[in-house]
Design a protein that fits this description.
The chain is α/β, with parallel strands linked by helices. It is 33% helix and 22% strand. Bound molecules: S-adenosyl-L-homocysteine, iron/sulfur cluster and FE3-S4 cluster.
């Protein structure tokens, strides 16, 4: 690309939501820099404020609307500053956002983010609204920003979601599934490897749906598994992860891939949502608790020490104590390494928002806490067991705190902090685990 704008802007971007949004912000940053703009970390020096927003729960929208109000007050004190809302909340609330905040200059949905850099090259940006399907091949898909390091990178393989889970706003905000061509994903991964990237995360709402009805199955291997095989063959890359798979299409070929493909990390995020078949049915999640247990069993038979994480919603309409106990049992039985527990939040426009939000807020809080305690207990058990072991860590960069502290992850996804030096970044280090907190291990560097 390399278009140079005649009036470079200083742009501040704040990102909410999931890794898809983080990736969208990254490609936006890379493209804006390519256009000649500057990305700044502080609001006070910026002349464009962009909030890349999430709509998945009400709280996510409240946060972003609050922040937009705060930025509007800043904007009013300075002239010529632009305020834009992009991402899922932009798509979800659309022009209604102008009513909530009259200072908004542009509203851009997640599928149109690639068009934003061009919009910002024009001097006059006044109430621009870009929503719905992208209207051209989005060339920003493969753009990466290496300014914050290039050890790990995310690659988006698809957009949208064809499922209709009763509670979920994502199909509205991100539209129907569209798949990037396998060749362009592989080419992007090859370029990343040449730039020194060691670990790649393949991203999509349901990655194991990749290419369904668009790319052929070969020898009973799904398009997603074939994509994994291609990425596994790229020289220089050392680790591959993916997020998120759906239990529905988690078949033998994917389990087999975990045995066959050397670079595929032994860690899977498998969102189960509930342990009660009745609630899974009500949520329109097309699998049962037994199916989840059979996937977990097959994965653990193939890769015994595989790390498993999940998402769970508590307080779905009509969730009884018995349903909730079924989820408690599932978490106690599977012992996930980590689980994200969410309190059900009705989203206007989804099917479940038409049902009474029958579980009280205090009961949602209680269920949330019970599950968090279970997850925490399992996580501490796991971390305790790691003390004294030597693990291989891919060093990603400086830890948030401590001058000589560095951090990285094991292939199982455990985060490790240790004393090290800058030259280790991008390398594999052998670390002896000496201590832990709930979500992090601490260790000593032995060798590289
Ligand atoms: N595509 C992924 C999930 C994307 S949304 C999947 O199907 O697994 C991330 C998580 O947010 C979901 O797994 C779910 O646990 C949670 N979530 C989605 N909608 C929600 C809602 N209305 N209330 C509470 N949590 C919700
Ligand atoms: Fe939402 Fe369900 Fe699609 Fe996940 S699979 S993004 S929960 S509709
Ligand atoms: Fe992600 Fe939130 Fe959108 S979870 S897909 S940013 S609604």
């Amino acid at each position: 690309m390399n278009v140079r704008v005649s009036f470079p802007r200083k742009i501040f971007i704040k990102t909410y939501g999931c890794q898809m949004n983080v990736r969208d912000s990254e490609r936006l940053v890379a493209t804006l820099i390519d256009y000649g703009h500057e990305i700044v970390d502080t609001e006070d020096v910026a002349d464009v404020y962009i909030l890349n927003t999430c709509s998945v729960r009400e709280q996510a929208e409240i946060k972003a609307i609050g922040k937009a109000g705060h930025l509007l007050r800043k904007k009013l004190r300075r002239s010529g500053v632009l305020l834009g809302i992009v991402g899922c909340m932009a798509e979800n609330l659309a022009e209604n956002l102008f009513k909530l905040n009259s200072g908004i200059d542009f509203i851009v949905g997640p599928r149109r983010i690639g068009e934003l850099p061009a919009i910002l090259t024009s001097e006059n940006v006044n109430r621009v609204v870009l929503l719905g399907e992208a209207n051209s091949q989005d060339i920003t898909e493969a753009m990466h920003d290496f300014s914050r390091g290039n050890v790990c990178a995310s690659v988006s393989i698809m957009q949208g979601c064809n499922m209709r889970c009763s509670y979920c706003i994502v199909p509205k905000t991100r539209g129907v599934e569209t798949y990037r061509p396998m060749e362009s994903i592989v080419a992007e991964c090859e370029i990343l490897a040449k730039r020194g990237v060691k670990e790649i995360m393949l991203l999509g709402q349901i990655v194991n749906n990749y290419g369904q009805n668009a790319v052929e199955f070969v020898n009973n291997r799904s398009p997603f598994v074939r994509l994994l095989e291609r990425v596994d063959n790229i020289p220089g890359l050392e680790r591959i992860r993916y997020m998120s798979p759906h239990p529905k299409g988690f078949r033998k070929d994917l389990i087999g891939a975990h045995c066959r493909l050397k670079k595929l990390c032994p860690s899977v995020h498998l969102p189960v949502q509930s342990g009660s078949d009745r609630i899974l049915g009500a949520m329109r999640r097309p699998y049962t608790r037994a199916r989840v247990l059979s996937i977990v069993g097959a994965l653990r038979t193939s890769v015994p020490d595989i790390s498993l994480t999940t998402d769970v919603i508590v307080g779905y309409p009509g969730e009884t104590e018995e349903d909730f106990q079924a989820t408690v049992d599932l978490l106690n039985g599977v012992k996930f390494n980590m689980a994200f527990i969410f309190k059900y939040s009705p989203r206007a426009g989804t099917f479940s928002a038409t049902l009474p939000d029958s579980v009280s807020e205090s009961e949602k809080d209680r269920r949330n806490k019970v599950l968090l305690d279970i997850v925490q207990r399992h996580s501490i058990e796991h971390n305790k067991m790691m003390v004294g072991r030597v693990v291989e860590v891919l060093v990603e960069g400086h830890a948030k705190r401590g001058e000589n502290k560095f951090c990285g992850c094991t292939k199982h996804g455990d985060k490790v902090i240790f004393d090290g030096q800058v030259t280790l970044i991008g390398k594999f280090a052998n670390i002896k685990i000496t201590d832990f907190a709930i979500s992090v291990l601490y260790g000593e560097l032995l060798s590289t």
